[in-house]
Amino acid sequence: MPRKKETLYCEICGMPIVGRPYYAEVDGVEMVLCASCYMKLVRSGRAKPIRRRETPRRVVARPRRSEIVEYEIVEDYYDRIRSARQARGLSTKELAMKLRISESLLRKIEQGKMKPSIDLARRIEKVLGVKLLVPTEEPEEPLAPPSGDYPTLGDVVVIRRDED
Ligand SMILES: [Zn+2]
């Protein structure tokens, strides 16, 4: 989720970075550092400065990994493709032509024998107006709020009783 205002935290000392963040490779891992940690680590040779073409305007404090959205093809892709094609009155031949794939490949896909590539699935989505790709569910590390923020079982029971 993009946040409106992002505070960067130094990945070494954990302090909010005031002013410009510094980027360096520390032990082979790209990190965002505060000025003082950056200086220290670069001087000691532990950090390798990373040159960036331009100063990133919007850098998310959380690891980049959470920004990478990967897609996977829905389980019933063949059903969705076939129904959408039939609803549009297209033959497999016609649809195959539109997709620039062979009719036999399309048939295999519609029979569920072959999953389309992500790229092809995108094209099918466009041509047929169906949804075939869903973001892969990647378990994100929970933000681990202070334990007091979570209602205890007792609290939940009380809340429920109040609603009755
Ligand atoms: Zn620092």
Describe the structure.
With 164 residues, the protein is of the alpha+beta class. It folds into 2 domains: 1-67, no CATH class; 71-135, 434 Repressor (Amino-terminal Domain). 36% of the residues lie in helices and 12% in strands. It has a 3-stranded antiparallel sheet, covered by helices on one side. The protein has a two-stranded antiparallel sheet with strand order 4-5. A hairpin with a 2-residue loop joins strand 1 and strand 2 (29-33). Helix 3 (92-99) crosses helix 4. The protein is rod-shaped, with a radius of gyration of 25 Å. The model has no long low-confidence stretch (mean pLDDT 80). The structure holds zinc ion.
| Biggest sheet record | 3 strands, antiparallel
> Number of helical segments?
6
The proportion of residues in beta strands is 5-15%
Radius of gyration: 25 Å
- Associated small molecules: zinc ion
What overall form do the CA principal axes indicate? rod-shaped
Percent of residues in helices comes to: 25-40%
Overall mean pLDDT stands at 80
- Separation of the first and last Cα atoms: 35 Å
Question: How many domains make up the 3D coordinates?
Answer: 2
Element-level helix/strand string: EEHEEHHHHEH
